[in-house]
Specification:
Helix content is 71%, strand content 0%. By secondary structure, the chain is mainly α. The longest helix has 18 residues, at 3-20. The radius of gyration is 14 Å and the shape is globular.
């Protein structure tokens, strides 16, 4: 995927999240994740991605909170 494709895809995701609203955003993200995971042939392709996302979400933010 090119940088332009990635930017376009991320923008579309942001727009979709805004459209469904905060209450329904977790459902949209869950459905998207399941759809993308189903494209992988093996769990060992997906599990490191989950671990990486978890590790990044556990980091303190840049604002010192």
């Amino acid at each position: 995927m090119t940088d332009t494709d990635l930017d376009h895809s991320y923008s579309a995701l942001c727009e979709a999240l805004a459209q469904v609203g905060e209450a329904r955003a977790p459902m949209l993200l869950s459905m998207l994740c399941l759809s993308l995971m189903s494209r992988c042939e093996r769990a060992d392709e997906v599990l490191p991605l989950i671990a990486n996302a978890l590790a990044q979400s556990d980091r303190p933010d840049d604002h010192g909170c």
